[in-house]
Amino acid sequence: MLQGGDDPLYIARRLVRMASEDIGLADNHALPLAMSTLHACQAIGMPECDTVLAHCVVYLARAPKSVESYMAFKNVKAFVESEHPWPVPMHIRNAPTRMMQQMGYGDGYKYNPDYDGAVDQTYLPEAISNYNFFDEKYKTK
Question: Where does 40-94 show beta strands of DSSP type E?
Fold first, then answer.
């Protein structure tokens, strides 16, 4: 692609997308490496960044692949577009004003860092609280 005249920043941006979309949760080092590659290409430009791009390309090619988070995000988007808007549960609504506090915004909210381990708290509206946006066939192994 470089020899064909493509902009190295375009290539680096595509590598960032690949690291997130195609590798995802299977290798959590892929995205930081791709972002570092993009930054290096911005900082040093051609011809020096060609080896940086090659380094990232080889790493991403060898990395295990997982589209679990990408497919879950697509499922969420499709769900949101096809359903009517669901209200945010009252206990997780921000209450920056006295009126909102009086209306019950934030009542019963459990601040996760105050607890050891998992917190028993829902984050979705009750009507869809059991909906699973993850498809087991894409589960990261």
Answer: none
Termini Cα distance of the chain: 32
Which CA distances in Å does 99 have to 87, 89, 104, 106?
A: 18, 17, 9, 12
Structure tokens at 103: 């209306």
Instruction: Give me 43's structure tokens.
Output: 């900082």
What pTM did the predictor assign?
0.75
Closest to 123 (Cα-Cα) out of 95, 90, 85: 90
The tens digit of pLDDT for each residue in 84-123 reads: 788 899 999 999 999 999 999 999 999 999 999 999 998 8
Q: Which of 67, 49, 48 is nearest to 57 (CA)?
A: 49
CB neighbours (10 Å) of residue 20?
17
